Amino acid sequence: MYITNWDDFQKAAEDIFTSSPDNTRYVHAFHGSQGELVLKVTNDQMIVKYKTNQATDLKKFIGMNELFMSKMQNKAMDIDEPVAEVPATTSPNPADSPQIPQGASTASKSSKKKKSNKKKGGK
Fold this sequence. Notes:
By secondary structure, the protein is α+β, with helices and mostly antiparallel strands. It has helices at 6-19, 56-72, and strands at residues 25-31, 36-42, 47-52. It has 2 helices and 3 strands. The protein is elongated and about 75 Å long.
């Protein structure tokens, strides 16, 4: 099921990890054609998903990555280095926040060097 609120998704994801840390998988995918980031956390009994196209959610995503990495290593988060936080927006209107940039529409062209037909040494 897709969860629309970030805080609810993060809480549910942490609960899944806490209940079975050895079986939990955390997957993220970026669909460049739609400009969407999809996150999925599952332990084979329960699955939660979150989909966004908002650039402000990227900092939350990075913070959650740091949180999961520290939990997977059985390390406490460093208090001196805070997790990236973004203030909550009062309006869920997608037009209020910037979109995730989409991938480049054209591939970069490689330039080939022309070989010269000059021969070295003369006679």
